[in-house]
Structure formats: structure tokens, C-alpha cells
Amino acid sequence: MGFGGISIWQLVIVLGIIILLFGTKKLRNLGSDVGGAVKGFKKAMNEESAKEENNAQKTISKDDAEFDAADKAAETSDKKTESK
Asked: Per the record, which residues fall in region Disordered (predicted)?
């Protein structure tokens, strides 16, 4: 048994009929079009995930900067209190 109850010979016959109907040139063009679409999709997904990582790093950096600023402000107020 092959895929889902379809034998390998049945798949070969279906492939032969498809080649007779469409021809190898159209199938080759279709294959390259589908391959290009998949490649473009993967590229877009990688760019999107890179943007998300970059945004996450910016957010973390911003949070760290805010924490550092608050920490410095607290130190400054402590120094003013100690000097009085």
C-alpha cells in the first residue's frame, strides 16, 4: 500500500495522465512558480521574525534604560538626603 490506500502504480498512472494533459513545459513552469512562491513566503517569515526579535530587544533595552534612569534618580535623591 502507498499513500492512503493508493498504490505506487496508481500514482504513476495519474502522473502520466497529468503529463499528457498539461505537458512537461507547463508543469515545469508551475513547479518553478510554486517554488518561487514558497521561497518568497519563507523569506517574508524570516524577515518578520527578525523584526519581532529586533522590536523585543528594543523594548528590553528601553525597559532597562527606564530602570537605570529610575535607579540613578533614586541614588541622586539619596545623596541629596545624605548631604543635608
From this structure: 46-84
